[in-house]
């Protein structure tokens, strides 16, 4: 009986820890997301760079964005060329990866209205970071 009680307690503790961790992850992402989308709407490359992990992954065939200087120079390519990220982010709801709660993505439409541009975010040791984008058509 003592073994069953101990195992039950450990299971309850593990479930509680996972639930609390997932809730904290979601809460910290929500705060990050508000800061990030505001920075994109203001074209604030310095804040976006601080909230990014370089190099930023880009769509197939497009060179990675290696640092803050390149992000500033290539801002339009990252946030306006394939999709209007500022407009999209105002309405979009980030989606958590079902297999890994430390990954989120936001789907944005291309000029034809198809949600094909996917922005990726990851929780790192230093907090949430923008890690790149994909265009599903490429």
Q: Could you give a short account of the major beta sheet?
A: 5 strands, mixed
| Series of secondary-structure elements, N-terminal to C-terminal | HHEHHHEEEE
CATH topology name: Nuclear Transport Factor 2, Chain: A
Q: Number of domains in the coordinates?
A: 1
The CATH class turns out to be: Alpha Beta
Low-confidence stretches: 4-24
Strand-pairing-aware structural class: alpha+beta
Radius of gyration: 18 Å
Q: Number of DSSP helices?
A: 5
Strand content: 15-25%
Helical fraction: 40-55%
The average pLDDT score comes to: 86
Write the layout of secondary structure elements.
Layout: H1 2-41, H2 45-50, E1 52-57, H3 68-73, H4 75-81, H5 85-91, E2 95-96, E3 103-109, E4 115-124, E5 127-135
Parallel strand pairs: 1-5
Antiparallel strand pairs: 2-3, 3-4, 4-5
Helix pairs in contact: 1-5
Short description, anyone?
By secondary structure, the chain is of the alpha+beta class.
How does this model look, in words?
By secondary structure, the chain is an alpha+beta fold. The chain has one domain (26-135): Roll (Nuclear Transport Factor 2, Chain: A). It is built from five helices and five strands. The protein has a five-stranded mixed sheet. It is globular and about 30 Å long. The termini are far apart. The model is unreliable at 4-24 (pLDDT under 50).
Task: Name the descriptors.
5-stranded mixed β-sheet; 25% strand; 5 helices; 5 strands; Nuclear Transport Factor 2, Chain: A; alpha+beta; 138 residues
């Amino acid at each position: 009986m003592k073994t069953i009680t101990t195992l039950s307690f450990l299971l309850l503790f593990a479930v509680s820890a996972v639930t609390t961790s997932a809730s904290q992850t979601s809460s910290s992402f929500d705060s990050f997301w508000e800061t990030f989308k505001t920075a994109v709407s203001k074209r604030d490359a310095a804040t976006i760079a601080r909230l990014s992990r370089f190099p930023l992954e880009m769509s197939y065939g497009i060179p990675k964005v290696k640092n803050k200087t390149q992000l500033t120079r290539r801002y339009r390519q990252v946030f306006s060329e394939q999709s209007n990220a500022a407009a999209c982010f105002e309405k979009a709801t980030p989606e958590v990866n079902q297999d890994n709660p430390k990954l989120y993505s936001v789907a944005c439409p291309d000029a034809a209205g198809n949600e094909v541009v996917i922005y990726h975010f990851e929780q790192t040791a230093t907090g949430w970071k923008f890690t790149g984008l994909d265009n599903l058509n490429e």
